From TrEMBL:
It comes from the Eukaryota. GO terms for biological process: carbohydrate metabolic process; pentose-phosphate shunt. It catalyses: 6-phospho-D-glucono-1,5-lactone + H2O = 6-phospho-D-gluconate + H(+). It is an enzyme of class 3 (hydrolase). GO terms for molecular function: 6-phosphogluconolactonase activity. It comes from Paspalum notatum var. saurae. Residues 81-312 form the Glucosamine/galactosamine-6-phosphate isomerase domain. One of its GO terms (cellular component) is cytoplasm. This is Probable 6-phosphogluconolactonase. Pathway: Carbohydrate degradation; pentose phosphate pathway; D-ribulose 5-phosphate from D-glucose 6-phosphate (oxidative stage): step 2/3. The keyword Ligase does not apply. Hydrolysis of 6-phosphogluconolactone to 6-phosphogluconate.
Length: 325
């Protein structure tokens, strides 16, 4: 891949790698930029109290290798095209699959629905089709619509048709919701399933939060800043106890859904937030620039990992409203 990568840090949000900082008063990210490649740009940050990623931890082709588990880190990758994003997302996911398969004998991958599934298409092609150890994969959904599995609105169907049906993942390791149950029943059932998988060691537990710690959550974001089925202004965004909950009045159809809660999303080891297109630029701009009062946070802004690495995979259109790109 003929790739250029720029490493950069937005001083307000992303502390620079070598100590350059914009004045604290500035709410507009000032970009510190260092050329390390050619077509995508990489912004990294960690919270001020946490170690800043060394340049060596950055990608040579737009993808950051698996990081250590210490602290919470944020990265912003900007690709010239969705095609390049898809290539990098496949490499990133394959590397994490290898890391966790070696470390714990299993790789727990959480999928969203929506545009994410199309962005995962490169994993279904060589070299990944043959090089990834698919037998180690355990697949979950961050949210699901309460519809039959063969319904056009089903996130399972979307993932099966576009991704899972092309991969040799053991069917018993693909954890779809029980579509014979009500929304309440399906959420309870999925939570019970997760608890069992924690007990038998397939899903890790976060010692820090007491919630399950998935290896990688591959998430999308709606134009309104929703992630999973956690919508702006909906009380579900404040759920603190449940692992999986349900919604019956989703503003985006269909209305009945089940969803992971923020404590589960935020306990992940890695999150890839995959966001493309100009229609999402306003939400990206809000999430990645000036911080608002906490009552005004979009769901995507509430995705803050306790101890993990959060990487935005974006294209130029999605970041078109950010300043100093
Ligand atoms: O309804 C949903 O929407 C979001 C975003 O979808 P996208 O097509 O705009 O990427 C998705 O992440 C979620 O899983 C899905 O249920």
């Amino acid at each position: 891949m003929s790739t250029s990568v720029f490493a950069a840090a937005a001083a307000a949000l992303f502390p620079p790698l070598t100590g350059h900082r914009s004045p604290p008063a500035s709410r507009v990210p000032v970009i510190f930029r260092r050329r390390i490649g050619s077509k995508s740009r990489l912004f990294t940050s960690s919270s001020p109290s946490l170690p800043i990623l060394p340049a060596a931890a950055m990608a040579t082709d737009g993808v950051a290798p698996a990081a250590s588990d210490a602290g919470s880190k944020k990265k912003l990758l900007i690709f010239d095209s969705e095609e390049e994003l898809a290539v990098s997302l496949a490499k990133y996911t394959a590397e994490l699959s290898e890391k966790f398969a070696a470390e714990r004998g299993a790789f727990t991958a959480v999928l969203s629905g929506g545009s994410l599934i199309q962005a995962l298409r490169k994993l279904t092609e060589p070299p990944y089709l043959n090089s990834v150890d698919w037998s180690k994969w355990h697949v979950f959904w961050v949210d699901e619509r309460v519809v039959p599995k063969d319904h056009e609105d089903s996130n399972y169907k979307l993932a099966f048709d576009g991704f899972l049906s092309k991969l040799p993942i053991p069917p018993g390791q693909v954890y779809a919701i029980n579509d014979a149950l009500s929304a309440e029943g399906a959420a309870d059932d999925y939570e019970t399933c997760l608890k069992q998988l924690v007990k038998n060691g397939v899903v890790a537990m976060s010692a820090a939060t007491g919630f399950p710690r998935f290896d990688l959550q591959l998430l999308g974001m709606g134009p309104d800043g929703h992630i999973a089925s956690l919508f702006p202004g909906h009380p579900l965004v404040n759920e603190k106890e449940r692992w999986v909950t349900y919604i019956k009045d989703s503003p985006k159809p269909p209305p009945e859904r089940i969803t992971f809660t923020f404590p589960v999303i935020n306990s992940s080891a890695y999150v890839a937030m995959v966001v493309t297109g100009a229609g999402k630029a306003a939400a990206v701009q809000k999430a990645l620039s000036e911080k608002q009062a906490s009552s005004d946070l979009l769901p995507v802004e509430m995705a803050v990992l306790q101890d993990g690495e959060f990487t935005w995979f974006t294209d130029k259109e999605a970041v078109s409203m950010l300043q100093n790109k």
